[in-house]
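Fold it.
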Amino acid sequence: MTAADADVVRELERRRFRAIVQRDFDGFAELAHPELSYTHSSGTLDTLESFVGKCESTYFVYHRIEHVIDSVTVAGDTAVVVGEMRVHMTAGGMRRRLDNRSLGVWARVDGTWKLLAHQATAKG
């Protein structure tokens, strides 16, 4: 693991959450692996296509995301990001505030880091 890899992944995490809040779904998709598994704290699983579709249709509207990274572990071409998320959003027309632990998995593909998996788990 190099510190540079961890720093790159930290920045990519910031970019992905910023893209979601700013409704830049093309930007989000550019960061994501085509085989993305996006697991919500409700247990719902989305693919890249279904997640972006729900965002574009305004089923999900992210108003604010506070994401604190606890650790980034890089092992070869895989990076695991552990952190916390406080999310202000609308889901299915209902305003929600979420307080989650989060896990992000990034894979280096052809020299570029791509988000392969996201897992949110509700705290307490």
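The chain has a mean pLDDT of 96.
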